[in-house]
């Protein structure tokens, strides 16, 4: 009896979670992606589908992101165009990301012109792909960007980048270089902010930057104060220009809430 009650409770709770949908025709890669996303994005309900037509079953759900696998197909392929149109019709409030075997600039540009908010190449590491999805989920845009002197890099940018230079992230997810004018943040705070943009928790940021967790928390507190933000996500979005700056005349002795 208790098992039935608990199962019913979990099902009811899942129906109220925001939803991410992965659409991949092939069962094996779809299952692998599904398992990874459920482990990494546990605050979302992850659904997998073989075709976009199955999105009809999500009409009553809060779908935040649809990841559409197009494999070798070009963005301009009629079937891809139809799928994108169907996603927009079924999930008008959801962002769309595509998973493609290509990452050339014409393909990426064509995807962006069609309203795609995330472009994931199958050549990306899983860490970078997850970081890209996290960015899209908080309102940003994730797309590959060729950079002179490097083989393969990706660009993490908000949907409105007027006046801002992009932040570049190496494909292996190890080295970050911020190419923008920075006056308010110290070099170490810039490094911490770059890791926040990836959605990393304090423990991983500390390990990557060889800092203690308490030092990371201190840097995040300073970043949030300088950005007039109440949490780390708001700090990232405001620093990247998506949110208007609020008054900074708040009590400097009051520490903003820190997320782990």
UniProtKB/TrEMBL annotation:
Domain of life assignment: Bacteria
Domain HTH luxR-type: 178-243
InterPro entries the UniProt entry points to: Sig_transdc_resp-reg_C-effctor, Tscrpt_reg_LuxR_C, WH-like_DNA-bd_sf
A GO BP entry: regulation of DNA-templated transcription
Cited CDD domains: LuxR_C_like
DNA-binding among keywords: yes
Single GO molecular function: DNA binding
PANTHER family: DNA-BINDING TRANSCRIPTIONAL ACTIVATOR DEVR_DOSR
Protein name from the UniProt record: DNA-binding response regulator
Organism this protein belongs to: Bradyrhizobium cajani
